[in-house]
Amino acid sequence: MNIQSTSKKLFVLDTNVLMHDPASIFRFQEHNLFIPMVVLEELDHAKKGLSDVSRNVRQVSRFLDELIQDADQQTINDGLPLSLIEHGPAGNNIEQPGRLFFQTRQLKHLLPDDLPGQIADNSILSIVLALTKEYPEVNVILVSKDINMRIKAAALQINAEDYHNDQTIEDIDLLYSGSMALEADFWEEHGSKMESWQENNQTFYRIHGPHVADWYPNQFLYIDDESGFEAIVKSCDGETAVLQLALDYRNKHHNIWGINAKNREQNFALNALLDPNVDFVTLLGAAGTGKTLLALAAGLTLTLERKAYIEIIMTRETMPVGEDIGFLPGSEEEKMAPWMGALMDNLELLGSRSGSTDWEQGASHNVMMNRVKIRSLNFMRGRTFLNRYLIIDEAQNLTPKQMKTLITRAGPGTKIICIGNLSQIDTPYLTATSSGLTYVVDRFKGWENSAHITLKRGERSRLADYASDNL
């Protein structure tokens, strides 16, 4: 290997990085990469199957095969320029000076006696130690998604880092919340140039001022005083924005399928869910904030009362909290039923509010179930949903790639609702900053046909609220 002692860093990639992001070899800019032979062996063992991991491994193999085509032994020893691939993962030409090195000879370095070299992780650590010793002027860094791997590396005084390129934002506290409190003197500063008018029984304001540039379409604004001002940003252009007064669904006369909003954020959520011009809604919130109930109540209203959609489709990632219960018999809908307890609980609640007698409640439940379909994520690829109201539950467990696959299923007239809790992620190697739900919240915040709101107050019960805050 001809690894030059330049200012460039040499990143040694662990297998899980390539499994997690097959395009990771293009994410290190001008720095050099090194792939140990044991990593290629692990990739080979994981290439078979229909899981996302297996698909990612096969994509990595295709990238590496394209890089190594027509390369002789000398070229491999000198490092393969990553610019050899004409079209990268995003379809753009890649022009990077970084090179990719494969392990072409045995690299030995003594490990502690309790770290046998034949274990894959320990073999990678041994290779990193050997590279550090052989090239003292090069900054050799191990990149791994495995926390224990990084801990062992730190114990051996090896530089190790997590793979950060998959993170949408650096700190989850910086994630767009969908609502913003205005200053108490907002009207004093912006009222002089304000225009107001009525249209279709709605009140609109045209606002001019310096703060308008920081607003996003369909962002919810409010003034936390006795005035109770709540508005939605319908459009914003430079220093001019059009606001629409939000409807008050806390009023009993504006109930949605028998329920009312219990706080400001729930009211904002219902405004977004019922807006025919909003095609994509994301709802974040802790357990008990009403995400599923609001999404389902709005869906039933739009489907059964307003006839805006043909049916409601609900799906979710089937990640168990504890031990997997194993094979589930029956059809697709019957297999998904155990995962849809939240749907059934909320349908039962909404059905109980649809009639006063047992017969009326039973009839309402049957009507609702005829319009609510349960579908598995496993069979979504290739489908197109027309005039459907699609609810993706537990969306925090989806990767950005899975989220893209689902959202691109939407055909004309379809509305997609993504709901989840970023503090309850069960998928390995996913964090709050790299979740697909975080990804879409950040990427869609500037689109005029999408809306997002973070629900803050729990409304399930005083017991659930106390448990959420203190356990």
TrEMBL record:
Any single Gene Ontology cellular-component annotation: cytosol
Pfam families per the UniProt record, alphabetical: PhoH (PF02562), PIN_4 (PF13638)
Keywords for the protein's UniProt record, in alphabetical order: ATP-binding, Nucleotide-binding
Keyword Lipid metabolism found: no
Segments traversing the membrane: none
Superkingdom of the source species: Bacteria
Entries under SUPFAM superfamilies matching the protein: P-loop containing nucleoside triphosphate hydrolases, PIN domain-like
Family membership: In the N-terminal section; belongs to the PINc/VapC protein family.
PANTHER family: PIN DOMAIN-CONTAINING PROTEIN, PROTEIN PHOH
Protein name: Phosphate starvation-inducible protein PhoH
